[in-house]
Design brief:
Blueprint: H1 5-23, H2 35-67, H3 72-100, H4 108-134, H5 141-169, H6 172-179, H7 182-185
Helix pairs in contact: 1-2, 1-5, 2-3, 2-6, 3-4, 4-5
Length: about 200
């Protein structure tokens, strides 16, 4: 019986979209920014790096659960833990941006406030998804698969809103300053969603 597997595969593909958004913090081409902005970028990038790794690990755990023919119980346990980790990571990134303060650019305060709000909203959404996965009925495979489908749909939306939040923060000089930081450069990871394409 196929059961959960195809649905969890859909979940993994949706998730990899979400993981990429933090890793997008490595920005575009660089030129000389101002010192204050460079210091801001370093502070944020250094804080983001471990959280991006946490998100990547959570994503990888769900990918792995997809490739094994796992029981609903195992899928539930892994997915719930992954969503919890992601919620914690986004919350920590929001806190890091908040602590760093506004970047030294036009509308820096607005960009910071919006990004922090979005990151916290994403953290809350992942916490909600964890609760949803916790409450799925693992005894009934069809119901469980249906429930996971709903979670995957929400994930798609979630990864899109996260992308928008960080895109706004990374426009112009902020993105350039971030792209010069070692900790942001080394965070770039290509999504492993392609492995699900078989």
């Amino acid at each position: 019986m196929e059961g959960t597997n195809p649905v969890n595969k859909k979940l993994a593909v949706a998730l990899s979209g979400g993981a990429v958004l933090v890793l997008a913090l490595s920005g575009c081409s660089s030129d000389d920014g101002n010192k204050e902005l460079d210091a801001w970028a370093k502070q944020v990038c250094d804080a983001v790096k471990p959280q991006a790794q946490k998100i990547e690990a959570a994503n990888a755990a769900i990918q792995k659960e997809t490739s094994d023919n796992s029981t609903p119980e195992a899928v539930q346990k892994t997915d719930a833990q992954a969503f919890q980790d992601m919620a914690d990571a986004y919350k920590a990134i929001g806190a890091a941006v908040n602590t760093a303060g506004a970047p030294n650019v036009d509308d820096g305060e607005t960009k910071k406030t919006n990004a922090v709000k979005e990151l916290n909203d994403i953290a809350t959404s992942y916490a909600g998804l964890k609760k949803q996965v916790d409450e799925l009925d693992t005894k009934d495979q069809a119901k469980f698969a249906d429930g996971l489908k709903g979670v995957a749909t929400q994930l798609d939306k979630l990864s899109q809103s996260g992308n928008d939040a960080l895109k706004a923060l990374e426009e112009g000089d902020v993105g350039k300053a971030m792209s010069e930081q070692e900790s942001c450069k080394s965070t770039t990871v290509s999504p492993s969603a392609s492995s699900a394409a078989g």
